[in-house]
What does this fold into?
Amino acid sequence: MFAKRQQGRPIFFVVPATTAIGALSGRLAGSAAVIAIGGLAGLAWGLAVGYTADWLSRRERWAEKLAVRSLYLGVLVATTLFGGSLFAMMFYASSLSVPETVLGLMRPPLGGGFAFFVIFNSLMEWLLFPATLCLNWHLPARRTLIVAGATLYYLSRVWSYLYFVPRILQFMEAPAGAPLAPDLADQIVQWVNLSWIRAAIDGVAAVLLLLAISKDDAK
It folds into this structure.
C-alpha cells in the first residue's frame, strides 16, 4: 500500500522543477546547446531522484528513516542558506548609500559570497527539495508544507536566473574604481532592495521544512 501511494506522483513536481532549473542555469552561458544540455541533465536528475525514491518506498522501514533524515538535512541547509542571505544583505544594506561600495562587495575577494550561495543553493535545488518531496510524498501534511516551500523556493531560483545573476554579470563589466553611471547605480540599489524578497523566501522555505518535521499523519 505504501509503495502504491508513493509511486509516480512526486515525479510530476520534481521533473519539471529540475528540468527548468537546468535549462535556466544553462541560459547564463548564452548558448542554445548549453540550455538544451542543462535541461536534459535536469530531466535525467529529476527522473533519477523520483524513481530512486519510489524504489526505496518499497522498503518501507528504510523509506521512513530516510524521509525524516532528509527533512532534518533540508532544514539544516535551508537555515544555513537563510542565515547567509541575511548576513550578505546586512553588508549590502549598510553600504547602499554608496553603490560603488556595494559593487566592491560583489567583486573578489569577497565576491558577494558567490561560492557559499552556489554550494547551498545547488544542494537545495538539485538534491534536498527533490529528495524530501519524493521521500515524504505519502504523508499529506508533510507533502503540503514541502510543496509550498519548494514552490516558493523554485520560483525564487527562476527569478535569480532571469534577473539577479545576469544583473551581477552586467555590474561586473563596470571598471573597478571608476565612478558609476547614475543608471547603473540605480540598478545596483534596486538589485539590493529586491534581494530582500529572496532572503525572505529562503526564510519561509526553511520554516516550512521545519514545520514539516512535526507532521507524521498518513491519512
In short: Residues 60-94 form the longest helix (35 residues).
